[in-house]
What we know:
Blueprint: H1 6-16, H2 19-22, E1 31-35, E2 38-41, E3 46-48, H3 54-59, H4 64-76
Antiparallel strand pairs: 1-2, 2-3
Amino acid sequence: MKLLNKTSNAERAKKHLFASQATYYEKPLTLVDGHGTRVRDDEGREYLDAFAGIATTTLGYGRTEVSEAVAEQAHKITMLDPLI
């Protein structure tokens, strides 16, 4: 997977985000890995994810049983139009 460099991330944030959101991208954080409640950036620093989303708060990162279930479902069907 090709990662964008930090300058590209910052430029993209300024172009596409609201001004109030772009504030958080002055020094972009590029997360590349996670396990449990911890995430790691592209420079190898580790962080406690205190801003996790709904699924990651309850499931964490890197759970084998979750990724296997997602892969199994993806082999069946990956998209269903909400209008159906």
